[in-house]
Prior knowledge:
By secondary structure, this protein is an alpha/beta fold. It is built from 12 helices and 8 strands. The chain has helices at 8-43, 85-91, 120-133, 147-157, 182-189, 191-203, 205-213, 225-234, 239-248, 251-267, 286-293, 309-324, and strands at residues 47-53, 56-63, 70-74, 96-100, 139-144, 162-168, 271-276, 298-302. It has an 8-stranded mixed sheet, with helices on both faces. Helix 2 (85-91) runs parallel beside helix 12, helix 5 (182-189) runs antiparallel to helix 6 and helix 7 runs antiparallel to helix 8 (225-234).
Amino acid sequence: MRLFRLPRCLQLLRMILVLSLVLTSFQLLARNSQDQGRERYVQNPTLYRTVEIDGLSIFYREAGPKNAPTLLLLHGLPSSSRMFEPLFARLADRYHLVAPDYPGFGHSDWPDAKKFSYTFDHIAEIMNHFAQALGLSRYTLYMQDYGGPVGFRMVLAHPDRIEALIVQDAVAHNEGLGANWKTRRAFWVDRAANESALRTNLLSLATTRTRHLGDDPNVERYDPDLWTDEFYFLNQPGQAEIQSDLFYDYRTNVDSYPKWQAWMREKQPRLLLIWGKYELSFDPSEPEAYRRDVPKVEVHIVDGGHFALDTAADQIAQVVRDFMK
């Protein structure tokens, strides 16, 4: 018995029809996904605001429902709240995110260094007043780089406000300051003799680039605008003096490390530690130093450098979501 076979032209037509249906299905799925993404964006847009704190205009980004758990995000050097845009895009559906620019950074006021005290104590005080002005009575504190010394001062001043801590490439132990801190330590000992060397070591284009790349061999993953924009910022009038003054005060952070460690050992806060595996600004021993203080710390080494959100935003956002549950 011979089976009936469709003519070849009809077989081709049937194949074309099936392929068309498959392609149409994929297009509908993609369009639905895009529509959902646009809907999330419309529902949780990032707002760009300013508030007057202690006579200064403080700029901040804010997104997410205000009745949701709050993340207060503190940026590093020489960045601003802009560094957290990848997290705003990924977390604002579930959390209330607030990220300010410090005085002298980003879109906040840059008072003259001759008239304003650029110290970590002073910036932490202003950030505490900022949190109070926005009615942030309870929050998880996310600290990156300079956000560490600012944030730990805030913690000790108002421990009742702290729900949990997230530390991303920020140091709280002297051993966390690696070999490239030799010039910086010399600056703390004799500022006048080492001012020029410090500015080259800390504020040059090469250093600004290395802060992002670290020793990542896959440099093509990084948008060069990341460091050229920051270098442009560092070369604005008054910035060299502002950053030099603030970094000279960094020596007080080293003196404060024992107090921060003692607080962690006593209080055992919920702590998430995120560290870029290509980090060169700080020593790789730092995550384990935190573990000595808080044995239950959750440590994640991610596929990035000092500014790990450059390349590991998806991974970090998921880690934060899991931690905040």
